[in-house]
Amino acid sequence: MNALPMALRERIFEAVAAGDTSTAQVAGRFRVAVNTVYNLLRLRDETGALRPRPNPGGHRPAIGPERYDEVRQLLAAQPDLTLEQLRERLGLDCSLAAVCRTLQKLGLTRKKKHCTQPNNSGPTFRPTGKSGSSGRRR
User: Would you kindly state where each structural domain of the chain is located, as residue ranges?
Assistant: First the structure.
């Protein structure tokens, strides 16, 4: 959810500071929750301002930017590594999804090698051109 605009924060604080009405009435007047009014008052007491606190960000990534070169080198040397093998070679204790997210962030793909040679003899079934018929009459 987005932070309240500064103008609204200031108007709420001014209404409470005027002391004419209760915090519940101020909340109703500005169509915010009562807790929002209390939180704004607490924020003003703690920081001296009504500015919203900065967003602390999310979780740290399992594979930090300092290891991106290592990931690239491992995949350059052996492009058919599975996610599990890559995780083991990096010595990480994280989920496979975290390894996959890192590869996506770096724009790296894992190209698998084919186990067998492709079949050059062609398809084993030749369509007759008519859908649903095999070309034989009964």
Answer: 6-47, 65-106
Q: What is the pLDDT of residues 76-87, one digit of tens each?
A: 898 888 999 999
- Alpha-carbon span 49 to 31, nearest angstrom: 22
Across all residues in the chain, what is the average pLDDT? 85
| Three-state DSSP string of the chain | CCCCCHHHHHHHHHHHHHCCCCHHHHHHHHCCCHHHHHHHHHHHHHHCCCCCCCCCCCCCCCCCHHHHHHHHHHHHHCCCCCHHHHHHHHCCCCCHHHHHHHHHHHCCCCCCCCCCCCCCCCCCCCCCCCCCCCCCCC
Q: What span, in angstroms and rounded, lies between the C-alpha atoms of 110 and 80?
A: 6
Q: What is the pLDDT of residues 33-45, one digit of tens each?
A: 999 999 999 999 9
| pLDDT under 70: residue ranges of the chain | 1, 110-138
Query: What distance, in Å, lies between the first and last C-alpha atoms of the chain?
Result: 70
Q: For residues 7 and 4, give the distance between their C-alpha atoms in angstroms, rounded to a whole number.
A: 8
Domain at 65-106: CATH code: 1.10.10
pLDDT at 44: 94
